[in-house]
């Protein structure tokens, strides 16, 4: 799947577009005036949609005008993946679907969640997403955080090829 197909997904187009477009290739200064390597400032206006989006991505303690902290974003990403995996594990167990082997979650061009992997019951896992908007939003938020992390890392890189790399477009889910 290409990044273009992710960006075309109706459920994810606005959020992923904001994620990629909201990171500026500059570093912010901290209170002492020194630049920091782990934060970037937003390039978009602080409109209400952007404020709510970044609060959801980073956490409710983020305030408009503050730089995005890569560490906070990574923490939010980890927490989001943990929450997604916990909810999926519960739904899968209730439906009698084994947790292993792992699988990939992507979003197709129409906005549909697609489950792929080396298992015969991917369609059963995919069906769990069909009527669960919270579960769908968890996937979208996780992909958005992943895109933001990629954008921040590539904007800080001194390697010009890093800025050309496409952000990840799927989530790998593995249970212990």
Mean pLDDT value: 74
Helix share bin: 40-55%
Total number of helical segments? Answer: 6
Low-confidence segments: 1-36
Largest pleated sheet? 3 strands, antiparallel
Strand order of the largest sheet: 1-2-3
Task: Give the domain tally.
Answer: 1
What global shape is seen?
Answer: globular
Distance between the termini: 27 Å
Radius of gyration: 17 Å
DSSP strand tally: 6
Order of helices and strands: HHEEHEHEEHHE
Structural class: alpha+beta
Describe the protein's architecture and organization.
The protein is of the alpha+beta class. It has one domain (3-173). It has six helices and six strands. It has helices spanning 3-8, 13-21, 48-58, 70-94, 122-130, 133-156, and strands spanning 23-29, 35-42, 68-69, 103-107, 113-116, 171-173. The protein has a three-stranded antiparallel β-sheet. Strands 5-4-6 form a three-stranded antiparallel β-sheet. Strand 4 and strand 5 (113-116) form a beta hairpin. Helix 2 (13-21) runs parallel beside helix 6. The two termini are 27 Å apart. The model is unreliable at 1-36 (pLDDT under 50).
